Amino acid sequence: MSNSQNLYLAPMEDVTDPAFRRLCKRFGADRVYSEFVSCDALVRNVNRTVQKLTIHDDERPVAIQIYGREPEPMADAARMVEEAHPDIIDINFGCPVKKVAGKGAGAGLLNNIPKMLEITKAVVNAVKLPVTVKTRLGWDDNHKIIVELAEALQDCGIAELAIHGRTRSQMYTGEADWTLIGEVKNNPRMRIPIIGNGDVNSPERAQECFQRYGVDAIMIGRATFGQPWIFEDIKHYLQTGERHEPRPLHWQVSVLKEHILNCIEWLGDERKGIIHARRHLAATPAFKGLSDFRSTRIKMLQTNEISELFDIMDSVVDKYS
C-alpha cells in the first residue's frame, strides 16, 4: 500500500460538497470526503444535513464523514449514511472548532478516550462498510497521545486512520508536526494504513512526507482552495521529479468558472453559489503576483451576479495574458 502514494481531498465544512469534490477527483484525487455530517441533525432528518449525503458515481471512492458525542446516535447515523452508498464511513474525532469540540464531539473526544473508543466500536458494529477515523495528535502539547490511541482505535476494528499533525489547542495555527504521524506509521503493531494530514501545500512537501514518514496516503485540505489541480501537480512531480509546466491564466480561470457554475447548480441559487465559491476565488494562486490587481480583486469578491463576475474574470485574462 505504501508504494501507492495516494492523495486524498480532506473533509472540510462548507468546502467539500459535490461541486468541489468532482473537480478534485477529475484532477487526480484518489479519494474524496464529504463535509462533516452531524449525527444528531441526520437522525432528526434536517434537510441541509441530509443533502450532504448526495454522492455522484464520478467522484468515487467517496467517504462520508460523521460526528457526534454518543455511541447510539452515531450508530444510527452510520446506518442512515450506509443507505446513501458511500464507499467508506469516516468518523470525525478531529474538528477543533468550539461549537463541535466544546460540546464533546470532534476533537473534544480527545479529552474522553473511553467514550471515543465506545463510539468507534458502535459505528464499526453498526455497518458493513469500512469505517475509518480522522483525529489529531492529542488535546494539547502535554497530551500528545496519538501513538497509543492509534493502537486502541485499530483494536476497535477501523480500516484506516488519518492523523492531522496538530493538537486540538493548536486549532489551525503553528506548524503541523509530522514526526508523531511517522511514529504511528512505523509502529510495528500497526497493521492498518495511516494517512497524514497538515500543511501539505506543494509537490515537494508531499514527496518529503511520503519519503520521510512512510505514510500510505496524504490528505490535502486548505491547499486545494482555488486550485483543485494541485492533485495533478503533485502526482506529476511524484512520477517525474519535475514540476508540472505552468498553467496558463486562461486555463486556470476556466476551471474557476466551472467551479462557480457547479456551486450555483448545487445550491440552486446564483447569489448563494457565487458567495459559496468566494473563498476559492480569494485563495487561488491564479491571481497571485498580478500587478495593480487589488481593485479588480475587490470587485471580483463583491459582485453577486454571474455575468458581471465572469466579465471581470475575462478582463483579467485579457489584461494579464
Describe the secondary structure blueprint for this structure:
Blueprint: E1 6-9, H1 18-26, E2 31-38, H2 39-43, H3 47-51, E3 62-67, H4 71-82, E4 88-93, H5 98-101, H6 113-126, E5 131-136, H7 146-155, E6 160-164, H8 179-185, E7 194-197, H9 203-213, E8 217-220, H10 230-240, H11 249-267, H12 270-283, H13 294-300, H14 306-320
Parallel strand pairs: 1-2, 1-8, 2-3, 3-4, 4-5, 5-6, 6-7, 7-8
Helix pairs in contact: 1-11, 4-6, 9-10, 11-12, 11-14
What does this structure look like?
By secondary structure, this protein is of the alpha/beta class. It has 2 domains: 2-240, Aldolase class I (TIM Barrel, Alpha-Beta Barrel); 249-320. 45% of the residues lie in helices and 13% in strands. The chain contains 14 helices and 8 strands. It has helices spanning 18-26, 39-43, 47-51, 71-82, 98-101, 113-126, 146-155, 179-185, 203-213, 230-240, 249-267, 270-283, 294-300, 306-320; strands at residues 6-9, 31-38, 62-67, 88-93, 131-136, 160-164, 194-197, 217-220. The chain has an 8-stranded parallel beta barrel with strand order 1-2-3-4-5-6-7-8, surrounded by 6 helices. Strand 3 (62-67), helix 4 and strand 4 form a beta-alpha-beta unit. The longest helix has 19 residues, at 249-267. The N and C termini lie far apart (42 Å).
Keywords:
globular, alpha/beta, 8 strands, 14 helices, 2 domains, 321 residues, TIM Barrel
